[in-house]
Amino acid sequence: MTLPPPVRPVAAVLALVARGEEMLLVRRANPPDQGLWGFPGGRIEPGETHLDAALRELHEETGIHADMPRLLTVLDFIEHGPDGALAHHFAMIAVLCRWRAGEAVAADDALEARWFDRLALAGLGPRASLKVGYLADLALALPGEIG
């Protein structure tokens, strides 16, 4: 499925959840990043805050319950097609969430969901979406705040 070029940047969220020294990732079923491992997330719905969107997307994609969402960072993902035309532009709002309950189960638009330690994360290489390692390092550098 090819997404039409955006008229403007799309605001979306990534839910970063740690459990101890492990981070929760999903393998995406749909473009962009179809088949790659990344953080649960998706577009913010009209009238929804970025914090509520992160908790909703997390639960929809994995069944995980979390709380205490807070902004970690914002990243732009801009991609151009072979002809140089804009293919997509997402303003991805990374939201740190505290795991409360549940085991990772792939649902909604996730093919798989599971917990990765730092070594397993580093071993994903090109099987992971851009910035997964960077965002995991940011989240895991905050001991006691999310895990």
Strand content: 35-45%
CATH architectural designation = Alpha-Beta Complex
Number of strands: 7
Low confidence ranges: none
What distance lies between the first and last C-alpha atoms, to the nearest angstrom? 36 Å
- The name of the CATH topology is Nucleoside Triphosphate Pyrophosphohydrolase
Shape: globular
Number of helices: 3
Oligomer description? single chain
- Provide the number of structural domains: 1
CATH class membership: Alpha Beta
Class by alpha and beta content: alpha+beta
Q: How many whole angstroms does the radius of gyration measure?
A: 15 Å
Biggest sheet architecture: 7 strands, mixed
**Assigned CATH superfamily:** Nucleoside Triphosphate Pyrophosphohydrolase
What is the H/E string? EEEEHEEEHH
Question: Overview of this structure, please?
Answer:
The chain is an alpha+beta fold and 147 residues long. The chain has a single domain, classed as Alpha-Beta Complex (Nucleoside Triphosphate Pyrophosphohydrolase), CATH 3.90.79. 18% of the residues lie in helices and 41% in strands. The chain has three helices and seven strands, in the order ββββαβββαα. Strands 1, 2, 3, 4, 5, 6 and 7 form a seven-stranded mixed sheet that branches. A hairpin with an 8-residue loop joins strand 2 (22-28) and strand 3 (37-38). The model has no long low-confidence stretch (mean pLDDT 91).
Task: Reconstruct the topology from this structure.
Elements lengths: L9 E10 L2 E7 L8 E2 L2 E3 L6 H13 L2 E16 L5 E16 L8 E7 L1 H5 L9 H9 L7
Parallel strand pairs: 1-6
Antiparallel strand pairs: 1-2, 1-4, 2-3, 2-7, 5-6
